[in-house]
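#struct-pred

JT: dropping the chains for the assembly here, can someone run the whole complex?
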Amino acid sequence: MTAILRLDDVHTDIGQYHVLHGVSFDVPEGGVHVLLGRNGAGKTTTLRTVMGLWRARKGAIVFRHHDITAMRTPDIARLGIAYVPENMGIFGGLTVEENMRLASASGEFDKDRLARIFSIFPAMQKFWTNQAYALSGGQKQMLAISRAIIEKRDLILIDEPTKGLAPSIIRNMIDAFREIGTETTILLVEQNFHFAKALGRGVGVIEDGRIVHKGQMADLAADADLQTRLLSLTAEAH
Amino acid sequence: MGSLDRIGGVYLLPVILALIAFVFIGQPSSWATLTVAGLSMGMMIFLMASGLSLIFGLMDVLNFGHSAFVSFGAFIAATVLAALGGWLVADSAFLNIAALFAAIGAATAFGAVAGWAFERVIVKPVYKDHLRQILITMGALIVAEQLILAIWGGVPIQVQRPAILTGSIILGDVSIEIYRVFAFLLGLAVYVGLYLVLNRTRLGLLIRAGVENREMVEALGFRIDRLFVGVFMAGSALAAMGGSMWAGYQGLITPAIGGELMILVFIVVIIGGLGSIQGSLLGAILVGLMANYVAFLAPKLSLASNMLLMMAILLWRPYGLKPAAKG
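RK: done, full complex below.
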């Protein structure tokens, strides 16, 4: 399968710290692909490096046929990559509508697309004119994801969308991501293995800034020993 | 929502301040004159502060050189007004106003162009480094003041007002200077303009979003550095416009004009909350009213009163009265 995103020996420093030590992996086109790892393993740094928010010191990042390693963040975004950061990046002083309008290249909405978003996340329609700071954590996450899909994107980078969310909202998110994953490629960074297992097609595991495992999620999900070794999951967590 | 918010929130503060002042001043005519003076002073300070607040909020830049634009605006306006002296005293209201607008326009245009150069040469190399920002913008301010001394000299310059804006309107016992009314209306027009741009246009949407979370604006595909330049130019132009209005208000200007006003401008930005135009307006009106009331009641406490006001507000609301939300 063709890779929509390819990272080849990517090294990233944050200040004096060498965080990514040669990360290499491919993200095949279509579906949800997951990057798993413990806290501080380098998951967020990987996404931010792809997005150009932190610069790779060495290595190459290729999106489709574009070498985006040294590109500016806005130029990377305009190639068709959306980013949902861990803190969601919601503009609290703006309304839900304004948040969405900003993410639309023309400033106008495609009615069919908007209707689809409302069907996935009805809360967005309900709180359309409300200021975003007043939304709950789950609703803010829905807004962050809605903003990422208000335009047709080729790739969406999503950083720990389940963090701090209630289990019922996480179940809704699984359904939403399944639907979004039918039209675009998602690279999901997660610590919640159950969430990742329910969605992921491909999986990579990162540890200390290096990819230590690549493969299919189904294989990892079926191998409890591998999960324990790679992710330190306990028997109960399986 | 608190009880204050239910009845108008922090926007009631100027009204409360005016009512308290009314009790202490006692004479309605003096109170009304001081209130109009405070409002017009507040609007002129708003012109200077609004740009600084946006620059602070959007770009996280501590621009201590902002007062240089105020000073240059004042001196350029004074020069244009002196050159068009014949128009100022002409019987024609049109010529009077044309001279005034030429002076304000020249100052504002200079502010925009100088702001562009200042951002590109002085500020751009020190983004994300507050210490260097303070040092380099303070240095630029010193250079700018020396340039003013070299061009206009150290002798105070008299600034003539257009004939149509001299004198006062008398309403019963209340005397209201026409220039102050004009300053108030101009400040109000600029506020409405800024409000409409920020709240009704895509550019304004981008600026408001950028004040909250610059990184996310970039991740949505927008070049925030271009926005920075535009906001810096607008902020500098507004400072120069404020300086030009202040020159006519004071009637006599010295190269220290910007530095003197900067204390008030910073108080306004801090009281109002960073990155907020509404906050700047509210803070400026409070500062203008407080300065005039206290100058009448206890002249020695005039400047200290605004410092105390700032301390009281920061103890109550550490981020100011109407800060822009931060993502």
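JT: nice. Confidence is low (pLDDT under 50) at residues 234-238 of chain A. Chain A touches chain B through 25 residues (CB under 8 Å).
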